[in-house]
Design goal:
single chain; alpha+beta; Rossmann fold; 4-stranded mixed beta sheet; globular
Length: about 110
């Protein structure tokens, strides 16, 4: 269902995996707001995305993203900026560093609708 239509039901959960950094920066807060509105009162949203630190992990991930998508805009948020954006949208946020054998700066954000 396109996000420009109303959803007749509330969802229990959303998952966003390595998505937000590929969207136009200005479109992310409205998307998060729509997803927040579509969640049930006790709904959860899981967001896995790329942190800006450490520097070498960010560059490794940017290199891989460029191989996959070319020169389209990519925007990575710092943990602090992502938490602020999610909290401003109305989520209670917990975060967890994801460790991998490869040097990815992935973070998991567990967002509960307030």
């Amino acid at each position: 269902m396109p996000l420009n239509t109303s959803c007749p039901m509330a969802w229990l959960a959303h998952t966003l995996l390595d998505l937000l950094h590929h969207l136009p920066k200005a479109s992310v807060p409205p998307l998060l707001s729509r997803l927040h509105d579509a969640l049930a009162h006790d709904g959860v949203m899981l967001v896995k995305d790329v942190d800006t630190r450490p520097f070498y992990k960010r560059w490794f991930t940017l290199w891989l993203d460029r191989l996959m998508v070319g020169m389209e805009p990519i925007h990575y948020w710092s943990v602090e900026a992502m938490i602020d954006m999610l909290e401003d949208t109305g989520f209670e946020v917990y975060t967890h560093e994801m460790r991998d054998i490869l040097p990815y700066p992935h973070r998991l954000y567990i967002c509960r609708k307030k």
